[in-house]
Amino acid sequence: MLNCAPSLNATTHAVFGVAALAGASLIAGTEPPAYAYPLAVAAAWLPDVDNPRSTLGNGLSRMKSPVLNLLTRPVSWALRVTSFTLVRTVGHRTLTHSLLGILLFTLPVWLILGRYTALALALVAGYASHVFADALNTRGVPLLWPIGGSVRLLPGGIRSGGAVEVAVALVALGFAGWELYLLHPAVRGALGLLQPL
Ligand SMILES: [Zn+2]
Q: Residue 66: which pLDDT band, with cuts at 50, 70 and 90?
């Protein structure tokens, strides 16, 4: 039986992914390239691959271009197989939403992509942001899985799909905007141009 209790939506996770990458880059003192942001968003959707109905668990949608299709089909199948395997073995919101899951994701990323700091940082920050965001949810996350129960960062937690989730996503968006302003001189320059002369 699939355990598909509602999760925070994909847009909320995308916003948290961007905010996490920008925050990690500010701390590390690096300016991430533009391509790092979509990667952080994809990584922020990855932990829900253990739910076949999630954005990535359902595989990637078919592209119009045959060439792109050829490239994305194997990834799509890998995601679906991973999704099916996870939901049949450990279930939704278990391994992928725990510290162990973050570690199992971070290790290969660091080993394979460690030389490309911006890339590795985007993937790890995006992934970890998902677990953090879900910890704000009513259901919490099993941080210490397979031992220990759910951890919730807010008393009661944020209900999925409610007005509070939208408000939290907007606050995170504002925070991400402020971080991007601090990080990227180009963003500051563009805003400077908007100022009245
Ligand atoms: Zn989740």
A: confident
